[in-house]
Amino acid sequence: MKRTSVLALALLVGLAVLAPTVSGQEGGGWRNLMSMSNWTPVGKVDWKTVNGELWSTNGNGFLLSKQSYDNFEIRADFWVSPDANSGIFIRCQDPNKVGAATCYEVNIYDTRPDPAYRTGAIVDFAKPSNMSINTGNKWNSYQITAKGPRLIIRLNGETTVDIEDKKYARGPFALQAGVGVVRFRNVQIRELK
User: Please, what are the domains in the chain?
Assistant: First the structure.
């Protein structure tokens, strides 16, 4: 009987540590960004929240974070149709001109005409180490780390980019909607020292 009580108490303590707090903070310093109140819509997009996910099925544009970041990790799950052109843009320099010319674009674009900077790449900076990962019609995960000049991209647990670049040091980040259906869930960020 005593062992069962100890195990039950340990389970409850473990669940309390893993559960999100009321303020939107996740364990380990992660901040949940799934509320539309964390974003500024840019462009003509029909972003909406459906079953706790951020969806876009029509239009071109972005959800731009209201905060700027320099050193951080982002975790995000995404589901796209096979024809989708999407991405996560980090350290954006001009909130009115989000794009590969003003941000690092972590691409989600399996059918990009020039496949050199397809899904898993940072457009114009680093080609993905694995060119065969296709993300259409299934849930996938990105983990993006930006610490100083070092940028690391992990797609479905596999490192696809690990580079150093000093062009952009700080800025908001953005979720892109373009061609096709785009859905994001579990979008979280934590700042690094």
Answer: 24-191 (2.60.120.560)
